[in-house]
Amino acid sequence: MRVGVLFGGRSSEHEVSLASAASVIRGMDPDKYEPVPIGITKEGHWLVGAGAQKMLPGKDLVYGQSITDACIGWDETKIALQELATAVRSARS
Known about the structure:
The chain is an alpha+beta fold. It has a single domain, classed as Rossmann fold, CATH 3.40.50. 40% of the residues lie in helices and 18% in strands. The chain has helices spanning 14-27, 50-53, 74-92, and strands spanning 2-8, 34-40, 46-48. It has a 3-stranded mixed sheet with strand order 1-2-3.
């Protein structure tokens, strides 16, 4: 299943968004999901795929390897993702 991962934007939290997206992509099981990076530059330009991938910090993304462990623990991450999923389901209904 292809999953779009949207990050970046014209916010002061731009870099945090990039780090979070990289962590989310690393956490996806490659046997189940094909992440599609969708980046928004600080200037508001949208990039998809390889162009967006270049925006992300660090080395190539590796499944199961988080870059935000020092910032947010697994328990908080799990809660945040559950709240996001609930909000998305609510918005779709």
